[in-house]
Amino acid sequence: MPEFCSLELARRLETAHAWRGVEYARAQAILHPDWPVSIQAIGGGYAVYVVPGSPVNRVTGLGMHGPVSTASWEQVGAFYVQRGMPIRVDVCPLADHSLLQLVHRHTYRLEGFLNVLACAVPEGIVSLPCPPDVEVSPASRAEGELWIRTTAQGFAGTEAPPRETLDILAPNFYAANAVPFLARVGGEPAGGGSLLLHDGVAEFGGDSTRPAFRQRGVQTALLQARLAAARGLGCDLAMLLTEPGSDSQRNAERVGFRVAYTKALLAGD
């Protein structure tokens, strides 16, 4: 990745992440026709609502393609008020300053931060040795339930994950832009992750490792296999989001990812 994160680079990353939310929501609408899924393009970004409590109920990409008007901001508010929830918005530090001006007019609380990491494909990839017993391959459509169960076991930290966790992870397999991968150790499913594609950018998501297989190089193997796949799929840029200082960030940096910027997660009252 270039050492300097330009507006052009940030725009590509934020747009790809916003589109991931769009395709995630579309997949949930197919998987759960009774859910009140809704998507609206606003201010250069996308407001998404899936179901109460969904982690993608937020607006992403605002201010990345120019100023955010008061009318657009009011659209965002109306979109979420109609669905009985506060505005939740990702704020990229390279977004147009008008977004901050609009935020300052209202009361928001800071929910947290996310590091956005990027890697130029193939130039930024660092080749690391992988344990010989870890095998990573694309998951076939017939392996959907296996992939969802395996990643849910990793996220939940139990061999019997709740239905809610299974539902949250399913679009990372079934979304139209998803390319899922399974990791096996000694032939047994050990972890999984996906590539979510948009306009030459491959976002890494849905990553997890079953508790019994942690600390054995599974995540490193998944990262490297997907970086190689991203190149083969014509992508020139890979990205992922992590909590600052997390093990996920450390693993990503080992294979070539670098922090492009840190964005704030805000929520209205």
Short characterization:
With 269 residues, the protein is an alpha+beta fold. It is built from eight helices and eleven strands.
Overview features:
269 residues; alpha+beta; Aminopeptidase; 2 domains; eight-stranded mixed sheet; 8 helices; 11 strands; 30% strand; globular
What does this structure look like?
- The protein contains eight helices and eleven strands.
- The protein is α+β, with helices and mostly antiparallel strands.
- It folds into two domains: 7-115, no CATH class; 134-261, Aminopeptidase, CATH 3.40.630.30.
- The strands form two sheets. The chain has an eight-stranded mixed sheet, with helices on both faces. A three-stranded antiparallel sheet has the order 1-2-3, sandwiched between helices.
- The protein is globular.
- The model has no long low-confidence stretch (mean pLDDT 94).
